[in-house]
Design goal:
Largest sheet: 9 strands, mixed
Structural class: alpha+beta
Helix content: 10-25%
Distance between the termini: 33 Å
Oligomer: single chain
Shape: globular
């Protein structure tokens, strides 16, 4: 069996904590590990690491590689040059498996944002689905609904055979569904033979098949010029709702889609007033509320059924039953080209992180933290100069081929277009202040020559 983790989403409903360049699957929302790492570990209990493929966006590749590298050196990462929803991502992973394994293996596809804690029952359900897969069915996994959720898709199935799909019904329809024994929430988990899925793409979504057949996936370098032509469509719309070859098995384990702040609230430990407080929060007389403080003190009084999320540069406040609508704020920011949708003040990289502490016309100031044994790429900038001041730890700076070992209090200037690298080959964390000056102060103004994280 092969596992495919869909890890290319933007997590727009979990804004402002989830951003375009550091989305929810990379965050530690309810445990010590990220959603992506938890998903990988779940599959790795019954699938070898070298048989698990994570499909991610190119923008997230370095962070995905860093997180999965902490769990296994053998995992496979396929990077989409542009996000095109779940159908192209699944087609890409199946094509990769066919090209590299030359055999028709079972494929299990899972999203990266699910909470499943009962792993034994999860594995038991997968085993129960195998005979249906062997008969040539694409198997989906249903969740018995216990309330009329309007944010999920529904499956109607009799004796394991799917009769219909309904995408996010209104409340009245959802209430009717939960009264019936043959309606289930769509878990977003699928299982099939590779050849079966490719035949269904040929039949029901030939535009994907035509493009995927032109792509050589064996070296994991997916050409933008071809992938850009893919339709942006979910696997449900592309195949599942059209095919007459779909079976369903009820998922025996617990299941939670961690796609909204309401769902995060529901799985989190609560106080005596049914509140969830994370970070530096002082509260008086609030009930049934979720307050998340990441960088500042948040004081609340008398809230009921309310969500408040604070980050360094944004605050979200809404009623708990409106958290599905957070996506609209995310999309509005995107339309306005507001970077609050795209990136945090603190940005995580494979080597550590940086925090923007001041910015204005022609300048930007950052705190840069480099973990022990890590290093930034060998790079240059066409539009900015940089001035580095060492705060703590020791730094090795390579500037135009010359090495400089700098201790706290020392500084160095990096001229425009100078080839340079910041490195920490020592055992202590390194922190520096970086002051950038120039007409363009963008992360796009980086020309990489060498990089241990494969970003060249």
């Amino acid at each position: 069996m092969f596992g495919v983790i869909l890890a290319g989403g933007s997590g727009s409903r979990l804004w402002p904590l989830s951003r375009e360049l550091y989305p929810k699957q990379l965050l530690n929302l309810y445990a010590e590990k990220s959603l992506l790492q938890s998903t990988f570990e779940r599959l790795n209990k019954f699938i070898p690491a070298e048989n698990i493929i994570s499909v991610a966006n190119t923008k997230h590749q370095a962070n995905v590689k860093m997180q999965l590298g902490k769990l296994s050196e053998n995992s496979i990462i396929l990077s989409e040059p542009i996000s095109k929803n779940t159908a192209p991502a699944i087609a890409l992973s199946v094509k990769y498996l066919i090209e590299n394994n030359k055999s028709d293996e079972t494929v299990l596809v899972v999203p990266s944002d699910l909470l499943i804690e009962d792993n034994e029952k999860f594995i038991q359900t997968i085993k129960e689905a195998q005979p249906l897969v062997d008969k040539g069915y694409i198997v989906t996994f249903g969740i018995k609904p216990n309330y009329p959720e309007t944010g999920f898709g529904y499956i109607c199935a009799d004796n394991n055979i799917v009769k219909s799909f309904t995408e996010k019904p209104d409340k009245q329809t959802a209430e009717e569904y939960i009264k019936k024994s043959n309606y289930f929430w769509n878990s977003g988990i699928f299982m099939f033979k590779a050849s079966v899925m490719m035949k269904e793409f040929d039949k029901y979504c030939p535009e994907i098949s035509a493009i995927i057949n032109k792509i050589n996936c064996s070296d994991k370098n997916i050409p933008f010029t071809e992938f850009e032509k893919m339709p942006s469509i979910s696997i449900d719309y592309a195949v599942m709702e059209k095919s007459d070859n779909i079976a369903m098995v009820e998922l025996k384990s617990n299941w939670k889609d961690l796609g909204s702040w309401k769902s995060i609230y529901e799985v989190s430990p609560k106080d005596k007033n049914n509140n969830v407080f994370v970070g530096h929060v002082i509260d008086k007389d609030s009930k049934n509320s979720f307050v998340y403080a990441s960088s500042k003190l948040v004081a609340t009084i008398g809230l009921e059924d309310t969500v408040v999320i604070e980050t360094e540069d944004a605050i979200l406040a809404c009623k708990k039953d409106h958290t599905e609508d957070v996506k609209q704020i995310y999309e509005t920011l995107k339309e306005q080209h507001d970077d609050t949708q795209k990136v945090h003040k603190t940005v995580y990289r494979p080597w550590g992180f940086y925090t923007v502490i001041a910015e204005g016309k022609g300048f930007q100031t950052k705190i840069i933290h480099v973990n022990p044994g890590q290093q930034l790429s060998v790079q240059s900038h066409n539009h900015r100069s940089e001035h580095w001041v060492m705060l703590s730890g020791m730094a090795k700076v390579v500037l135009e081929g010359e090495d400089h070992i700098l201790s706290p209090g020392h500084s160095i200037d990096i001229p425009v277009k100078a080839i340079h690298s910041l490195q920490n080959p020592f055992e202590e964390d390194l922190e520096i202040i970086e002051v950038q000056k120039g007409d363009i102060l963008s992360e796009d103004d980086i020309i990489r020559y060498e990089d241990i994280y494969g970003r060249v």
